[in-house]
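Worked example

This section walks through a single chain of length 162. The input is the sequence exactly as stored; nothing has been trimmed or padded.
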Amino acid sequence: MVRLDLLNVGIVEETGGILLVMHAAEMARLLVIETGLLEGQAIALEAQGVRADRPLTQDLLHEVILHLGARVREVRIEDFHDEAFFARIVLERPDGAARPVEVDARPSDAIALALRAQAPIFVADRVMVEHGIPEEREGRFAELFEGEDGGDQEGGGGRLLH
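Given that input, the structure is written out below as tokens.
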């Protein structure tokens, strides 16, 4: 597994969909995940530190997990098939059991939850090799790295592009 950080959130003008640009510094690759408008907005808001007036679904889920005494240990993007990425949320149990609870999730929901829980996001090496693209700090992806302070930002940056 390779650590991912949210690098950017962008809008696909033609479809109105949202692109999540995830950065795997260890492999110098980007993973781009397309998601729906609402899921993308929830991620962008959290990345920008903006709170909604009322809890979003990911806020609610995070609160429920915390009130049950558990915590989000990590999120894993484990597979890609049928044109979709597949993720798992790994929860640390309150009873201290050695075996964590793993829950199947859409990557967008898992990423939104990970950002709220300040939990790391990982991707399977095979998925990154097969579906990631080489990072380019010069050229077509240069604008994704603008404003970066040179170091990895804990939990990712994420700014809304137009």
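What to look for: The longest helix spans residues 37-47.
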